[in-house]
Amino acid sequence: MSELSVVIPTYNERGNVPLVYERLSSTLDGTGLDWEIIFSVDPSIDGTEQAILALHERDPRVKMLRFSRRFGQPAATLAGMAAASGDAVVVIDCDLQDPPELIGQMVERWREGFDVVYAQRRSRKGETLAKRVVSAVGYRLIRRIADVDIPPNTGDFRLMSRRVVEHVVALDEAHGFLRGLVAVVGFPHTSVLYDRDVRAAGRGKYNRFLGSLVIGLNGIVGFSRYPLHVISLTGVVLSFFAGAFALAYFICKLAGVAFPTGNPTIVILVSLFSGIQLLSLGVMGEYVGRIYEEVKHRPRYIVESQVGFGEGVPLRDRSLRQATQD
Asked: Which residues of 8-21 are buried (b: 16+ CB within 10 A; e: fewer)?
């Protein structure tokens, strides 16, 4: 019988762990598949690990990876995917804003032959206006300029076939923007629509407003060179404008037109050009920083302990390049 793995990146979610297990277990039992739930845990201070261990005592299909420090949601997700043994893997958050009951529809679409089934939001309850605006603008921007097709109004909540999971895990990238990595891998994909619920308990630990901005920046910088092209075009336009302004100033001087030194227009233009230069340096710095992160080849995560697995789960992330060299 096929097996389904559910990966849940988790950080300080003690209140939600029993709830997500109850809803997931009843849903997964209805798929007719063998299943496992993998909590991929950044070290928590609210007793999250103890809640997961209690579930494991009741149901050995509940498993846990605990990291040596907080590596963040993308790394936790990739670690869980690497440890999963299922023929298909579902990634879902622990806050229950994404309904586990949708997994049944995902499995049906997977059985129809789709390798990726992503959940696409019709509405986003429980999110601030600022976050909704950032998400809407970010998705439109990424969709317009990215080198790959990243569907709008989607998160990490999705089902992936075994071959997609293996290819995604093997990608040698320091920043694990799952939506982009899955798009890079390709294979047939489809969507199921749903309405996002409010958070079940507690406050969000991942993906707050600032986190949404960082994730959006990862999507833009990691999957598009468009910002660099914009800088080049802006430089050409401003150089032409500056040359035309200098020529006009020279003509005014020859014609005896009064043009006092320290004119506010000059101050404004100098400030404008300085701001654009700093912005350009910042954009280029993002790309240089990416290169810096990639060439170090540091592990994306280090597993401190594991519960419910055999001996086959790696305690640290190994890139495809590192594995080839060993």
From this structure: bbbbbbbbbbebbb
pLDDT at 201: 53
Residue pair 86/162 in contact (Cβ under 8 Å)? The answer is yes
In angstroms, the Cα distances linking 233 to 222, 229, 230, 283 are: 20, 6, 5, 14
- Please indicate, yes or no, whether residues 167 and 31 belong to a single structural domain of this protein: yes
Q: Is this structure's pTM higher than 0.90?
A: no
In 3D space, the residue among 87, 12, 86, 17 whose CA is nearest the CA of residue 52 turns out to be 17
Supply the range of the domain harboring residue 23. Answer: 3-224+298-321
If one counts every other C-beta atom within 10 angstroms of the C-beta of residue 138, the result is 18
**Cα-based distances in Å from 198 to 147, 201, 207:** 33, 9, 14
Same domain, 175 and 215: yes
Given its phi and psi angles, is residue 292 left (phi above 0), alpha (psi -120 to 50 degrees) or beta? alpha
166 in a domain, yes or no?
yes
Q: Write out the two tokens for 18.
A: 């029993």
Please give the Cα distance from 159 to 165 (Å, whole number).
10
Quick one: pLDDT band at residue 75, thresholds 50, 70, 90? confident
Of 73, 67, 304, 104, the C-alpha closest to 206 is 73
CATH of the domain at 131: 3.90.550.10
Domain presence at residue 326: no
DSSP 170-208: H---SS--HHHHHHHH---EEEEEEEEPPPSSS---SS-
HSE-CB at 173 with a 13 A cutoff on CA atoms is: 21
Q: In whole angstroms, what is the distance from residue 184 CA to residue 243 CA?
A: 43
